[in-house]
Amino acid sequence: MKEAIDQLLAQVAALKAANEKEVEEARVRLLGKKGEITKLFEEFRSYSPDLKREFGKKLNELKQAASAKIEELKQCTSAAAEASAPKQDLSMPGTPVQLGSRHPVSIVRQEIVDIFRKFGYDVAEGPEIEDDYHVFEALNFPPNHPARDMQDTFFVSTGHINPLLLRTHTSSVQVRAMETMKLPIRVICPGRVFRNEAISARAHCIFHQVEGLYIDENVTFADLKQAILLFAREMFGADTAIRMRPSYFPFTEPSSEVDVSCNICHGKGCNICKGTGWLEILGCGMVDPNVLEASGIDSKKYSGFAFGMGLERIAMLKWQVNDLRHYFENDLRFLSQFKTATEV
Ligand code: DAH
Fold this sequence. Notes:
- By secondary structure, the protein is α+β, with helices and mostly antiparallel strands.
- It folds into 2 domains: 2-83; 104-335, BirA Bifunctional Protein, domain 2, CATH 3.30.930.
- The chain is built from 11 helices and 9 strands.
- The chain has helices at residues 2-14, 20-31, 36-45, 49-84, 104-118, 132-135, 171-180, 221-236, 289-294, 311-319, 332-335, and strands spanning 122-123, 129-131, 164-166, 185-194, 206-217, 242-249, 252-261, 278-287, 302-310.
- The chain has a 7-stranded mixed beta sheet with strand order 1-4-5-9-8-7-6, with helices on both faces.
- The radius of gyration is 41 Å and the shape is elongated.
- The structure holds 3,4-dihydroxyphenylalanine.
- 3,4-dihydroxyphenylalanine binds next to β8 and β9.
């Protein structure tokens, strides 16, 4: 037994392996079910207690030495296998991440916000689910007034004095601005609005508006005209002209609709401007004194102007999109075409 153990110890110490397969073979030869060390343990079992005492320790040392050596060889050979494996090129470019693009309505909204920020306007937002007071009543639409027919409404709750509804215009945010902001007020309010309209190329039940409001002492219609002209030139180009047509909104007096000169045909007449040379872009007017007073502003001391425009309409003019439904269908072929001024 002693010689056998010494011989195997020497063998273990000298053990070498070129690869993982050879390590496994050595393990089976020494420690496998029929391995040489396993066989010695079998022989050992039949020994007398005296002999067991003499060889037990040595035999265990042999087994431990063999296991440790096998483990060491395993690690060396697997590290070598890894090192000789084809190397990864860490400088290779990764799988490209496809960047999304901004929605045309978001691009237009940002452009408008940037222009009015330059003019010193703040940005305000208000709730999409509003009450009747902020959408209609405070804006001089009395209950049952026929002007309410201009904006067919989705009611959320009815049957009480101040029902909740999906706001039909962002003019509701002007009311909130007048209630909460300190005078003078210079604010624009971009947001989503809702109307009970059948969906078609020219109408949708969801769309977006930007509302503007300026209230101070001695604000006149000339200030309104100048603000809109500067905006139109920034938005549509320095040679853009504007034209104001008298109109009616319950919350402004006088009221006007504004057209810009057609930037496609430059006034000659084309199918975008339907031969007129002009494109309608917004509604505006001097804030009705009733509206100022409803929000606690002294209409003898203060005056102001307001305007409101549809973002889809502006985007349609900018990119000649001829169907409103494209904006809401999330078709990537449509959406991926739009670039901001800095991306072009
Ligand atoms: N709220 C109007 C609409 O949705 C747009 C509008 C017109 C807003 C005139 C104004 C304004 O502030 O003065 O049709």
